TrEMBL record:
SUPFAM superfamilies: PHP domain-like. InterPro entries: PHP_domain, Pol/histidinol_Pase-like. This is PHP domain-containing protein. One of its GO terms (molecular function) is 5'-3' RNA exonuclease activity. PANTHER family: EXONUCLEASE (PTHR42924), POLYMERASE_HISTIDINOL PHOSPHATASE N-TERMINAL DOMAIN-CONTAINING PROTEIN (PTHR42924:SF3).
Amino acid sequence: MATAAGTVAAGTKAAEPDLVLRGVLTGADHHTYRSVPFTVPEGVERVTITFDYTGKEEHSVIDLGLLGPDGALRGWSGGSKRLFTVSSVDATPSFIPAPVAPGQWALLLGVPNLRKTAEASYTAQVYFSRSLAAADEPPPLRVPVRSGAAWYRGDLHMHTGHSDGSCVNQSSVSVPCPLFLTVQAAAERKLDFIAVTEHNTVSHASELRELQPYFSKMLLMPGREITTFSGHANMFGTLAPLDFRVAATPDGWNRMLDQAATLGGLVSINHANRPSGEACMGCGWTNDADIAKVQAIEAVNGTDADTLLSSIPFWQAQLQRGLHPTLIGGSDDHRAARGDTPVGTPTTVVYAPELTQTAILDGIRAGHVFVDIAGNGSRLLELNAETGGRQAMMGDSLAAPGGLTVQFKLHVAQADGATIKLVMDGAEADLLPARDVDGDDVQRSFNWISDGKPHWLRAEVRDARGHLLLLGNPVYLNR
Ligand SMILES: [Zn+2]
Ligand SMILES: [Zn+2]
């Protein structure tokens, strides 16, 4: 993408631990505690530890805790955790989020059982992360929820009781809604990933870590909705603090977006075309931010696609300005799927090599995305281009010198009876031999002879009543 941000590359974290702590416990250690010291250097934001030991067949048991540099107990997991992480923002259950100060820390080993003649060899792998960016999480925290390249379906915008999400309690009173209910609703919708985006806070990050092992088929990503008096924008990919009080400083939005990029954040402008007022304070995009500094635009918010509130024209206007912000969608669910725009409506569908946070975010940065407006779970829209042996998918750029023929392939699934529309540079393009979708799996090919100039071409699919079903990112030509 031709945008300024995206400076934190995924997959850069070394696979090797920073420290490996090994030792042997014997029968003499039965019913004792042992501290295993290690040094946390300056500049570390997250400590992640994996732990294992031998001798379980002899009923050897080693419990696990963590002591901070002041000797304070930072958590105790007994024998229940072999992997944990702690940072100032989040921690694995059993452990306490708190700032990671440099100095001498210790693993605290408890020995509830070790037979007189037994020996247990333990190994702890210690990983230090120097930022709270997802891309800097160590490999044990980045195990894919699913492997393999695929279109992954998710929802990138929702609120729970960690901000203003509410639901009715046992006494029929509206209360801050437990996060679990929203995640459960997303799982019932069979989504592959969700991002929970609370207003200006990431207090939900620990709870997502707690829920992730239970929701083993759905990737849970922490995000936040940067919520200001002059616009809302989601940020994904980092748990680092970000000062959202842009009204207090001149050029505040641009400074904040620069900081977001430094932190490894992916920023999406939300519901840009909403009116701002007492009904929705700061909801409209009324600031002077340089939109080249954002990576995505939530052009579909809930069910607004075919309404006057749609932000699709706002997104398209940025394409016309020469920018490449990725089209995404978000339900903005506030009611654990019991409201008008339940989680999954719309669904953002991302092509990614695996189901991890960094892979999904990189797929969004690359524009490998279409939006399934109703989120029906199986609709597909693909637009691919090829010329001179070079290929491009939605979001990619293809160089096509003047006179060269570009071959396009369009693939629409599960939209029988619908109609395809192509849009080039903001106007409908008459390039398709047949616009009707006559079947559950339809492929169309067409050619375009390049004039050598910069263009963008996108596809959309509408049902028989003209309602939008699928909306894809453009293939960019010569830009
Ligand atoms: Zn908002
Ligand atoms: Zn929101």
